[in-house]
């Protein structure tokens, strides 16, 4: 192919004019244009290769997701990703359990859509239902008697199903609210389908619109870890209680929850986020049937393979509480509680050493499960930046620590949410790096000392 500048091309055309016809000139012009296009494409491919190479290096430098729990020397280059609540902390316990939760499924099993056609939730495996009831009884965190159990593909699907069930008979779109800071996915999930049945209306504390509404009560709350109650409290309201973190590794179990509609998930109960199993406890049969109908229409039920595995994991959790004192680390909740206690102690030390950040202070409570008083140990740290830092997420990104900004939770960007559930290696690296981020005032004082 020829590569000619425009001036060179013009001179060539003048010389070759008598020899070539207009048709020849058009063909030659086309060939040159194709050559230029190919050059541009090659250059673009090179750019994409560079970007892909950079992306690969970025992934290689990222600590989380990671493998192994060994100590890591921090050179400041690794990206510590604590934006998501991926509960990989629990891997260590389940590795110790070996084959106790191994499930073998034959090829002929689970060919039918139906699990129990006589049950209101016809796709709920009876084995899972039994283990859900048993675990709640062992822990004492929820009433199950006279409730309908509905299984879902994680609590996210159940949340959507609950919105559908509670608003399907409304004459106008129902307002959906939650007190800020609220779970960052609530607005996105509520409005993603642009449904005419319901609409996200933001912070429940500022809600003053008339008409029916749905209030989401997350307790303990994601992101700040506080125990929550409804705040709107007026006629026409319906409550959905998201109790994903109401387990004894995170918070004192003070009383069995007894609300009209309660959501739970395996991911934060046992750490098995990849199973995508959650369950709802529903008092009202009509609402329960509508939730089932939504899941039937959207996914025609829930994976039986995942349900069977979840049942075996929940059974192992309940069994472990029966073979040893619950507070021993060989029990699931003993291991989980000790891990959370240790991590919160390390984080508070790092925050105090830094002088820039602050964390919520929690009131200790008596836990009926542990039969002792302890301070809540949330799955997320709600960190606030001081020292004049307005955008805490960006500030920490400058130190290659990825978090989620408070603006996604309906509050100031001076806050960030940080996952406390990553692997030991990642978490230990995080607290070491955080402790080295010092305020100018603290550095001056240390220099004087």
UniProtKB/TrEMBL annotation:
Transmembrane feature ranges: 20-41
InterPro entries: Alliinase_C, Alliinase_N_sf, Ethylene_sulfur-biosynth, PyrdxlP-dep_Trfase, PyrdxlP-dep_Trfase_major, PyrdxlP-dep_Trfase_small
Lineage: superkingdom: Eukaryota
Cofactor or coenzyme needed: pyridoxal 5'-phosphate
Pfam families: Alliinase_C (PF04864)
Annotated SUPFAM superfamilies: PLP-dependent transferases (SSF53383)
Keyword check for NAD: no
GO process annotations (BP): amino acid metabolic process
Keyword entries, A-Z: Aminotransferase, Membrane, Pyridoxal phosphate, Transferase, Transmembrane, Transmembrane helix
Record has Membrane as a keyword: yes
Gene Ontology molecular function: any one: transaminase activity
Record-annotated Alliinase C-terminal domain positions: 80-437
CDD domains xref list: AAT_like
Sequence similarity: Belongs to the alliinase family.
The protein's name in its UniProt record: Tryptophan aminotransferase-related protein 2 isoform X1
Classification lineage: Eukaryota, Viridiplantae, Streptophyta, Embryophyta, Tracheophyta
């Amino acid at each position: 192919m020829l590569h000619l500048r425009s001036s060179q091309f013009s001179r060539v055309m003048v010389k070759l004019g008598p020899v070539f016809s207009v048709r020849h000139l058009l063909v030659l012009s086309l060939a040159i244009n194709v050559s230029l296009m190919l050059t541009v494409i090659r250059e673009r491919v090179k750019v994409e290769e560079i970007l892909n190479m950079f992306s690969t290096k970025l992934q290689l430098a990222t600590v989380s997701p990671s493998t192994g729990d060994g100590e890591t020397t921090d050179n400041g280059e690794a990206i510590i990703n604590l934006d998501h609540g991926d509960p990989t902390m629990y891997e260590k316990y389940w590795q110790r359990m070996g084959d106790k939760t191994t499930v073998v499924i034959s090829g002929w099993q689970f060919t039918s859509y139906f699990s129990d056609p006589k049950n209101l939730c016809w796709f709920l495996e009876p084995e899972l239902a039994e283990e859900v009831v048993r675990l709640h009884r062992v822990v004492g965190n929820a009433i199950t008697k006279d409730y309908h159990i509905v299984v879902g593909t994680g609590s996210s699907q159940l949340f959507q199903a609950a919105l559908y069930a509670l608003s399907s008979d409304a004459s106008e779109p129902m307002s959906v609210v939650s007190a800020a800071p609220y779970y960052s996915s609530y607005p996105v999930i509520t409005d993603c389908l642009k449904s005419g049945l319901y609409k996200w209306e933001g912070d429940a504390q500022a809600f003053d619109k008339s008409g029916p509404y749905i209030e989401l009560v997350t307790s303990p709350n994601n992101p700040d870890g506080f125990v929550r109650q409804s705040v709107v409290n007026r006629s026409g309201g319906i409550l959905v209680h998201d109790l994903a973190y109401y387990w004894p590794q995170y918070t004192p179990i003070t009383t069995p929850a007894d609300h009209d509609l309660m959501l739970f998930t395996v991911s934060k109960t046992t750490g098995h986020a990849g199973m995508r199993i959650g369950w709802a406890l529903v008092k009202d049969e009509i609402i329960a049937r509508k939730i089932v109908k939504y899941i039937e229409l959207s996914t025609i039920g829930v994976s039986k393979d995942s349900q069977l595995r979840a049942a075996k994991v929940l059974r192992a959790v309940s069994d472990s509480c029966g073979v040893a004192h619950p507070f021993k680390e060989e029990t699931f909740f003993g291991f989980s509680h000790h891990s959370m206690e240790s991590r919160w102690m390390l984080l508070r030390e790092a925050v105090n050493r830094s002088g820039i950040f602050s964390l919520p202070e929690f009131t200790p409570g008596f836990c009926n499960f542990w039969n002792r008083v302890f301070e809540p140990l949330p799955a997320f740290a709600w960190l606030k930046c001081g020292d004049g830092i307005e955008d805490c997420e960006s500030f920490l990104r400058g130190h290659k620590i990825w978090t989620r900004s408070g603006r996604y939770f309906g509050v100031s960007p001076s806050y960030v949410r940080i996952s406390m559930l990553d692997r030991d290696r990642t978490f230990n690296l995080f607290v070491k790096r955080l402790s080295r981020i010092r305020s100018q005032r603290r550095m001056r004082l240390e220099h004087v000392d």
